[in-house]
Amino acid sequence: MPTTNKPLDVIVIGGGVNGVGIALDAAGRGLNVLLCESHDLASATSSSSSKLIHGGLRYLEQYEFCLVKKALAERELLLNNAPHIMWPLRFRLPHQPHLRPSWMLRIGLFLYDNLAKRQRLAGSNSINFSANSPLVSELTQGFEYSDGWVDDARLVVLCAMAAKQQGADIKPRTRCIKARRQQDLWQVTLQDTQTGAISHYQTRVLVNAAGPWASSIFNDVIAMPAPKALRLVKGSHIVVPRLHDEPHAYILQNSDQRIVFVIPYEGEFSLIGTTDIDYVGDPALVAIDEQEQTYLCQVANEHFKKKISAHDIVWSYSGVRPLIEEHASAQPQQESSQQAQHVTRDYTFHLDTKDGAPLLSVFGGKLTTYRLLAEAGVNAISPFFSHIKHPWTQTAILPGGHFRDHQHLQSELCQDYPWLPQHMVARFVRSYGTLCHHFLYGAHQLTDLGIDFGGGLYQKEVDYLVQAEWAYHSEDILWRRSKLGLVLNDEQQQQLQHYLTQRRS
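and the corresponding structure tokens:
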């Protein structure tokens, strides 16, 4: 295919949260944007987090006050901008004096409460654990504080949908295979990973937001030396039958100075994580190992009355965090004596203009600060566009988020669709918000939703996800657009994949 005639303003490489955030911000400021992602949206790090919108309480021990302050401020904004996929979550921190003294925890929680303005979240307080607590009897005192929960993969998809509404061209399953400067333009070659079709584009600015692949993009695509090194750190999580019936999450201190979260997950389960292990290899092949499983089970067993083992794990996932390797050359995977959990979660940019068309590369970052990162990234390239508009995403509601609160939206759906089972209503509210009307409108009974794939997943929802949210494979739907892979059996999952295959033929 010949090169498209009219140059784009921006091409973004990478369909994780930072990439779609930049595409959304730039498109909303009037730039002509294309985003390419070699796999599904949020198919790597951005769907493998602890599912938290948080300031990072433990980062205070590393004196990262600026990072925590930024994240805490963003936490409030995001809870307002995406109320369907984000909501407040109360955390309990059991106190173990031999690990951290109470005065240290009190100071840390005081800073956490006051580094940024709180509007929706309650402050911290001390608590006593009763005999009915799910914790072991030795743990009698602790603290409570507030943070936020997020469906990370849906956050990415909703940002991509919002970017598309602003005019961006979103191309998942499209790999950037070559990018070369030609005076004041980038010549970019893309390949459809399903068909192999090649397309060529020109763009004024190229943005490298490839996450764990941000450094390798330089060697494999741009043919330039990487300006910064990334330290790849594996974080793994396990999902087990729910350890307790309380609505609270727990943050557990361990003797190795790490912390582990135990979070209520998808109603019937507990999510436990994360680990921090240096990783070498292809980030696409990352997986939990037996040692990590044992570690997470051991930490949980030291705190909770209900004991678990690897046999109780119903699902696990691992992701690779692309952390900034400080005091190192631009050679990836260089030896470092700094423990992985102490490496900064902040982000930085590298803007290269010395040989012509600008190249902006994103290194590091965390889920909570994605919007701030995106705004700063577009600010960095704004001098190259005379027509660019002002920042706008601070109060931008993501698709489906225009409603009062979960309770009122559930009531409205029950009134509009009284035949819907309550568990489906609850899932639609926290996954789609008002977007669920796209596949519910016109239905008068469950059979109107088409094929029943199990677990409350019906054909109309699947068709919507394919048409509007770029779903392609069954795993896109079962593990990123939803977590229904936890409840559908193998036969049901195969039926879904068969339907998607037949639908494309």
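(Above: one complete record from the training split.) Residues 327-337 have pLDDT under 50 and may be disordered.
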